[in-house]
Amino acid sequence: xxxxxxxxxxxxxxxxxxxxxxxFTPSELSARFGIHxxxxxxxxxxxxxxxxxxxxxxxxxxxxxVGPSRDELLKKIGELTVERDFLAKGLRLSN
Length: 95
Description:
Helices cover 67% and strands 0% of the residues. The protein has 95 residues and is an all-alpha fold.
């Protein structure tokens, strides 16, 4: 049985950018990179659909950094834990 080949994001971006440039047909790119033309078309569509993310992030944060940082999440977990313990203690006292 043939196993699927996993391509890293850098390779996918390289192929997709080549497809966006339209200097070669998907068939020509397929022969060049050893990928099925349908896969090239799919990666090209993904690149075009998600291109706005590169500009939407603004302050230089990468796509992986969008959202709260690890430290912010740990701080929030601590706050919620203290709150939960306080409320649980209050419930025990009222029963």
